[in-house]
TrEMBL record:
UniProt name for this protein: Phosphogluconate dehydratase
Residue ranges occupied by any Dihydroxy-acid/6-phosphogluconate dehydratase N-terminal domain in the UniProt entry: 69-377
Transmembrane segments: none
Any GO MF annotation of the entry: 4 iron, 4 sulfur cluster binding
InterPro entries: 6-phosphgluc_deHydtase, Dihydro-acid_dehy_C, DiOHA_6PGluconate_deHydtase_CS, ILV_EDD_C, ILV_EDD_N, IlvD/EDD_N
Region annotated Disordered, chain positions: 555-574
A Pfam cross-reference name: ILVD_EDD_N
Amino acid sequence: MSKSLNDTIHRVTQRVIENSRASRASYLELTDRESERQVNRDTLSCSNLAHAFAGAEEDQQAIKAARGPNLGIVTSYNDMLSAHQPYHRYPERMKIWAREVGATAQVAGATPAMCDGVTQGQDGMELSLFSRDVIALSTVVALSHAMYDGVALLGICDKIVPGLLMGALRYGHLPAIFVPSGPMPSGIPNKEKQRVRQLYAEGKVGRDELLESESASYHSPGTCTFYGTANSNQMMMEMMGLHVPGAAFVQPGAKLRQELTRTATHRLVEMGKDRDYRPLAHVIDEKAIINAAIGLLATGGSTNHAIHIPAMARAAGIAFDWSDLTELSSAVPLVARVYPNGSGDVNHFHEAGGMGYVIGTLLDEGLAHRDILTVWDGGFEAYSKEPGIDGDALVWRDPGPSGDTEMLRPASDPFQPDGGMRLVEGNLGRACFKSSAVERERWTIEAPCRVFEDQPSVNEAFKRGELDKDVVVVVRFQGPRANGMPELHKLTPALGVLQDRGYRVALVTDGRMSGASGKVPAAIHCTPEALGGGPLAKLRDGDIVRVCAQSGTLSTTADLSTREPAAEPTPDMGMGRELFAMFRNFADGAERGASAMLASGSL
């Protein structure tokens, strides 16, 4: 017998509903109006319609005669990004599967899809976060032709899934479904990869050895197998009911993966108007957003989603902030440890029970909303099952008990009683701290700070031995308005080495860390950011800084009120960064989603 909904989750949900009342009503009014005035292909001019099906080849006559629903495919395919390489053949197959149920499908458009793994520590990383807004805008452009009765969204990785969802929500009167492609097979053990990275940071191995190690880890099509932002995206799509149940972590090329994609195509047709109508605007509501946050906390997911969840929520007219996230964290236990929070990767997680197990144990303990509208006709409880093939049929089964209690535990006996993220705040602002990745004895760090204004300067100081001491490393002017809020993942090996040497080390920054943030305590996404006079701009070398996840503290003993902020750096040019000036100039704070598009005043 499942328990009733947890009181804290109920309280936070009601607060989010109340805080969102006006904005949510405005959003739903917009989507209802769009639904009523939606252009029907029968009402398009002959010239409009002829343009729209001219390239449809064998589907031309069906679209011309309006014989059935027409699906729009928005793809983020490229073959540089390993997770998206399998999407190459998806559209042609989905067109065949649409015909099986009397429908047609067209590629409505494509979005950019950059890889943070390629741009880590490079100038291109300053485009990364704002690529989410570009992807959202690209999705809107793709769907602007008014030809579609449903939307298939092909995307997996970091900014791509949030961007696709934010854009698709502008067409919230249409049903939509996300179609993943799955993780690559496991490579070398994660501890070995981490060991070689730290040896390279210390200068004990060379570039050839490092490249060999990295190539053995990232080695084939599919999502990178650590539990970073991309795989946290897939978890959230399950928690919000936007996948065919259990689709997240089935590997590319498997028969099961193909059947899940075929089923997604068929299901999208079934969700059309005059059928089992499930518009995206009603699938993504306050409870769905709360479920996404619960999944993030329960599995120790990517810190990037402390930015993406508020942004996705806001695109649906929902107000959600870090106070909501940290209060949920007090009630949601950590039930999964996946690398970098544990030793096994997402393939091991899936084999141990995966999302079916996680959702089942959360529902059993009253720790997730059961009554959300999903894309699946079995409701959210269907997501507590795992998919499989029986003969030629796609079936769902109970995943049973955890297949590895070092990776997955029931919510009644978790790894820790609270979730994976905490809000820290004080006279240095508000920031996020991923407690699930850090040993408890390192939850509190108090030490003199060293202040830097870019990532390379930290690594240079490390190589000179200047950081061989207890230290809080502050990296400022890394916020959305300063330089696009890049990930600072290149700091992880050096800070990890310092910690392993016995020093008490922490990071404080208004930038982001990777979804693969690891064992070093870090207060990240600090808001207000340094640019514009935020508190970090007033810190000086040697100021005592305290970061404490236990008490939720981010503070300094220095009197900042008497100081002028440091001079603001001039934004760098090149790599197209100058073209993103409008995004930087109009971006709002990290807690509101760090979006220029959402800050425009229209949402």
